[in-house]
Please model this.
Amino acid sequence: MKKNEKAGEKASLREVWTYNLRTLKLGQKIVPGLLFYLLGTALFGALIGFIGAVYSARILDMLSFGDPAEAFVRPVILLVASVFLLGRLGNLCSWQIRKRINIMFFRLRQFMSGVLLGVDYGALEDPDFKNRLRDYGSVRNATGEIVMVQVYAIDRLMQGVFALVSAAVLAWPTFTTGSGMVNLAVILSVVAAATAGGLVSHRKEKTIRGENLKAARRERLLHYYSEKVYAYTQGLDMRLYGAGEFAIDEQTRELEGDDFADMWGGLDAQFNAIGAAIQTFTVGCVYLFVAWRALSGLSSPGEVVRTVTAVTLIFTHLLSVTEQVAKLFADTRTQKLFFSIVDEPERMYKGSLTVEKRRDRNYEFELKDVSFKYPGSGEWALRHMDLKLNIGEKLALVGRNGSGKTTLIKLLCGLYEPTEGEVLLNGIDIRKYAPKEYQLLLSVVFQDFRLFALPLRDNVAASETVDEARMGEILDQVGFGERLKTLEKGLDTPIYKEIDEKGVEISGGEAQKLALARALYKNAPLIVLDEPTAALDPVAEYEVYAHFSALVGGRTAVYISHRLASCRFCDRIAVLDKGRLIQYGTHDELLAEEGGKYAEMWNAQAKYYNEEDSFGAENMVQ
Model:
């Protein structure tokens, strides 16, 4: 969906055809065989109605004409056998459809997970893309997964078309005899009534879908407040600051809006009343027509029943078909929204080169005259950045908030591509490498890292295969070993309780240790630690500092911290300010630069450090 496209724009016939055909193909791809069983259900349902009407009319005529009892045996047997067989086949198809629809629900979620994993990281931070995701989520909550909604609509459309054809065949003998003008008038009346009903339905569906899209913001807001009221992590603030009452008041204001009440209070009743009036008028016309034919001697009793059945079915299914077509038109906007997410174009060039597998793990990373602006921003986040990560070197990145440290790391990881300049791996632009190949070389602990409500081993290994001995060693190294011994299920212990009620809650410091363990377990040549000790207590922080070289080993490491005393164990320090590299050197070299930014920041924090032992645990509070 284009950024300037409005939710209320009318879909063209070509768009309706294109998007619904694509939706049906996607449904068939996700659950093979779906289309076959949809066709089967429609066909068998139509045949049951057709055969039932034909044989019922014949039996009624036989009764009227006084046929002997034995003459009824054959048509009754054929009727019962046909209806039973077709009913069983229809039920089989319906069961297969229900089974596939149930599977589709979960596979669609899996499909969308794959779509979002394949989207460039920059899109996930783009306001336009995020709004489309939120809008689709809101509409999905109101109407269901659009693919499933459309499959149901197409299913009902096919059933209506098949039934309409069978009803037309039933009615054909009636409308080819008698007064042509009267027959034509009745046909036009039925078609006009069904068309009017379809237009009413179209207006209803268009209004509802339009309101659903307009209500996307309200839905997001209501969901946000509802989630925060019972969220464990926000529970303290909700209670201590009275934020819970504020959230409820905000929900009340949204729910009491006039447009909300109008949409859900009177919309259905208005449209349903109009539809009922149209249906009553049509049924009356049909009965008058049939009565006229019977009184005129043009129809036998059986033909009367067949004609009433046929014309009623024609109206009912013609109305159903127009309603489903109206829904297909109305839902095309949501489909466009859905496929705009699925079709989100790649924003970054993605190469195909395989990263050289080096036993010596000598990978040199370099930023060469790199400048970068975030999408939609006019400000430079980084400007003319030249920085080389020497093999096996420990580099500290320091600077105030907003100086560009995390942006530099995202570029280094290939999550964004530079606006200007290049990021190089052993002298080759990383855009030439296959992204997954390149990212195997990096282990990163971001400041806002996340653990998952999964077993501990899965959080650390992020893989189905686990080297338990090595994982245990790493957990010991990061200071989680003692806690692991207290866990009854050991590495199989679930973290958090969202999925498993027997899961354990861990502290922020413990979570940070596990995140560090995850980065170390990957054993990539380059490790990046963004504030890796921010949630640790002074003693645990000291242990990480003291064993940092042993933890990292011979790997190249980038370390980001606001606590400058922790940077003294690094080989080099890069000082960033307003997106530029303004100082580079060792701790002593930078401290010796009078008037330098590093010396200024160091002196501002000096009161927290023991001059004789900057790594003393008792002095590492800030």
